[in-house]
What we know:
By secondary structure, the protein is α/β, with parallel strands linked by helices. The chain is 32% helix and 23% strand. It is built from nine helices and ten strands. An eight-stranded mixed sheet has the order 1-2-4-3-7-8-9-10, with helices on both faces. Strands 5-6 form a two-stranded antiparallel sheet. Strand 5 (74-78) and strand 6 form a beta hairpin. It is globular, with a radius of gyration of 19 Å. The mean pLDDT is 97.
Amino acid sequence: MKTEFCRLMTSDGLELQGLFFSPDSGYSRATVIHIHGLSGNFYENRFVDVEAEAVVGQGMNFMPFNNRGHEYISDSIWHPEGADEPSYKQIGGMYEMFEESILDVQACIDFARSKGAERIILQGHSHGALKVNLYLSRNPQPDIAGLILLSPSDDFGRQRERVGNQFDEIMERAMKLVADGRERESMPVNDFAYPISAGSYVDNFRPDSPCQMFNFTETDRTEFPELGAVTVPVLGIVGTVEEAFADDPDTYIAKMKHHLANAGPFTGYAIEGAPHNYLQYESELAGLIGDWLGGL
């Protein structure tokens, strides 16, 4: 297996970093792109290491990359339009606007194509699963051959469960900061499980946010058009411990299958004992992914 460190640039000028694993025999014409979760990165979760072996073992490339939501706060090299020299832009999960993730996924796809990929499988973990599903629902393309959803998060259900009747009060507080031009100001520490700015909080939890696409507890919506729009084969996997949704795991998988009714077909697993990041269950996860890719 060959490993390369790579950089790519989004259409709005951000530099992103990642790795590109490929067979010793050369680049494959099939690539699995991995998008990490909220405030994560391409290297933190150990399952990435094990999955790389499994994917390349199927004769495919594997491409885990940072997106603009990596770390809580991060300085990224930025090439502003019209500027003679690059500068730095402060990004990270603290500040990201969810729908801008489409630019990151597109840059990864373009990079994979530049390496000769003719079939692409999009994979997202946690909040990253929402990002790849959003991309595909709005940009169906003939060379996108499959979708892997690892522990997609029900952000709305979890937040309402966590803060109860304070949900509306927290949103009002965030909206007031945004209205006052303080959108990059941090929300109080108890308002959300992770550090987040007022602008990002409003973007994620506004009434029409696409971040509701896995709100299977139906606290905020009952229809899921982003899932219904997916027509490629889908593999959905969750753990059973400390997961990022309110349902029990088997129910969550069943609802995923129901709402991905147009996927062709949907395959789902709950890995007993595995936590949200699959720590110590990396081999089981990679085995399921490798077997699914082999039959794709």
